[in-house]
Design brief:
Blueprint: H1 2-27, E1 37-38, E2 41-43, E3 46-51, E4 62-68, E5 71-73, E6 77-78, E7 85-87, E8 94-97, E9 101-106, E10 109-113, E11 119-120, E12 126-127, E13 133-134, E14 149-151, E15 156-159, E16 162-166, E17 169-171, E18 178-180, E19 186-188, E20 196-197, E21 202-205, E22 207-209, H2 215-251
Antiparallel strand pairs: 1-6, 2-5, 3-4, 7-22, 8-21, 9-10, 9-13, 9-17, 11-12, 14-15, 15-16, 17-20, 18-19
Helix pairs in contact: 1-2
């Protein structure tokens, strides 16, 4: 019965952890370039179930199979699938179509983002909503002087038809090489994992990439997790009642 309590409690903890991910995904449904997190469950430990030797058994203990002790939520995986491209008609809004990332300079170092909602600061430099500088292929800030700015699909920045910079659009070739670091930005899990120029990514000016969240799927998952949590909660209550009855039976004086 104690094993049952442990299993039900681990189910509640796993549901809580996955619910936090789903809630965060839904909260960022309107965040430009947001990539949703996905999670899965795995068994926490397994034990071998044995049948005790009986007079009818001449071979002693017999293996009946394994029993999972509990479930645990695995580390979230970032879903990097493409989000929809939405037109804004703003010259400084840029959307990426493909696996690439914009490169920005932050106080914590170079970071990568899919959020293309850029603007121009007081010095004429292109920055994101956090004030972080957008970088070119030489890791220099991109300064836009007065005039009409245009960005082609290859990421070449022009002002009045004069090329002034090339956007640093990069990608990572390893599986899940990036981690979220807040403010809708990513950093390599291993600093030795260097990005490469992304030849397969197109830049669309006057557009943004919306969140890739599947809202209907997220709401369905939330309902499933609520029911799973409630079911585990009822199991704990049932197990607690059974333990209480067993203790009362043991403690009852023999007449």
């Amino acid at each position: 019965m104690i094993r049952g309590l442990y299993t039900a409690a681990s189910g509640m903890l796993s549901a809580m952890r996955r619910m936090e991910l789903v809630t965060n995904n839904i909260a960022n449904a309107q965040t430009v370039g947001f990539k949703q997190d996905r999670s899965a469950l795995s068994t926490f430990d397994e034990v071998m179930i044995l049948q005790d030797g009986t007079p009818a058994s001449t071979t002693g203990n017999q293996e009946l199979g394994q029993l999972g002790m509990a479930a645990v939520a695995e580390e979230p995986m970032i879903d990097f699938t493409q989000g929809a491209i939405q037109d804004t008609s703003r010259d400084f809004d840029l959307a990426l179509e493909g696996p690439g990332f914009f490169t920005v300079r932050t106080p914590d170092g170079v970071r990568y983002t899919r959020d293309g909602g850029f603007t121009r600061d007081a010095f004429g430099r292109m920055t994101n909503t956090e004030g972080h500088l957008l970088l070119d292929i030489n890791n220099n800030p991109i300064t836009i002087p007065g005039g009409k700015m245009a960005v082609d699909e290859e990421g070449t920045v022009r002002v009045e038809d004069q090329a002034i910079a090339q956007l640093a659009i990069v990608e990572f070739n390893l599986n899940q090489p990036l981690r979220k670091v807040g403010t809708n930005q990513f950093a390599p899990r291993d600093e030795a994992d260097l990005p490469t120029p992304s030849a397969g990514t197109a830049v669309h000016q006057g557009s943004i990439e919306v969140s890739n969240l599947d809202m209907a799927g997220a709401q369905t998952t939330m309902l499933e997790l609520q029911r799973a949590y409630q079911a585990s909660q009822r199991l704990i209550q049932y197990q607690d009642e059974m333990v209480g009855r067993a203790v009362n039976e043991i403690a009852r004086p023999v007449s």
